[in-house]
Fold DUF1217 domain-containing protein.
Amino acid sequence: MTDTLTSYRLIAKDLPASLARKAAEPTVARETAYYEAHIGQVKTVDDLLGDQRLYAYAMKAYGLEEMTYAKAFMRKVLEEGAASAASFANRLADDRYTAFAKAFSFGQGVSATGADAASFGERARAATLSAPKLLADAYDFSGRAEASFLVESRLDATTTQSVTIRLNAQTLAGRVQDLSKVTPSEIATAVAAQIEGSDLKGKVQAGLAADGSLFFETTALTDLGADGAYGGSGLNADTLVSAGGAIRTLAIRNVPLSADRIAVDVGFGTDLGPDTMALTVTQAYLRQSLESDAGDTDTGVRLALYFARKGPSLSSAYDILGDAALSQVANTVIGLPATNGAATSEALAKRAQLIADKIDIAGLRDPAKLDAFLRRFAAIWDAQNNTASAPVLALFTGAGGIDAELLLNRQTARIGA
């Protein structure tokens, strides 16, 4: 049987080729083809959860296959998303759920609420949203590029209106000087024009802020009713829409791209449309399949490949301690025994310091240093195991090893040595 070091090097020396071979396997190719053919039709959380084949593929792509049965749990992950630090996914001590929520960000976006006047004589504050990033100098919309997002505003206690903004070659044609070089001011003008042509006309304004970002703000409007004249009752009754106050809201939400479009991020809207999202997920699925299948033969190879994927993103020893598979690699290289359950904050800090002293975590961002580290691990693993070691799937199914709550507050019982 091939040893761990040789097997790891055979896969890692040309990872793209290894992934290509995995992608060509009939079962993998069949499931990937189904996913790519159907993911564009998924518009809601229900759509994803309702197609068991799609859902199972997505879950495996993020290493969550053991949680595929827990649809109510995953619905909460998806519905709350990852935009808020208080969301369900972000409160779980396992970044796989956050990554999953980000990849399938149905309707996630940003929102703002106006405020009532703080004192007599002051005006109520309007709801305002400025994009978190500046617009680029120019955007190429001459091909399949599209920026899509929903603008929504609550006008009163019972009325909410919205418009879907789509910027692409068709909607911008005749409105911009050069589709291949659409400027920030042209984008702002085009967005404002689409709002003016919707139910939000006069109730929300859009423009280009002084810093070069898109902004939206709620505005006041007197709706004169069906007759377009002051006064009247019923359908002809006038309705005042206030610009501000706690009842006025403004929200920008992601929407799926039009068919065959490629996402462009203009500060609002998703930069991860169905086509881009499908590519991201299929690549993750291939990597998970490669690692899992390698582990069926040699657990050490799976551990090495997993560490190779996660290593460049590690920022501290606690990132290693929070993941049982990463800890297994670190313990093997350093010569630390596995832990025996819970730990005191002091013992955990001591263990983290040992790892930080022995492993150059920042250096793991260097591919050559990371590879050298993993070759060392594979050689030690070979020396300690009979290469046919039993698979340890449990290492890859959660934070494991150290209690997740302990990683958050570092206060529990005692670490075993």
Notes: DSSP finds 17 helices and ten strands in the chain. The beta strands are 109-113, 128-130, 145-154, 160-167, 204-208, 214-218, 221-223, 239-241, 249-254, 262-263.
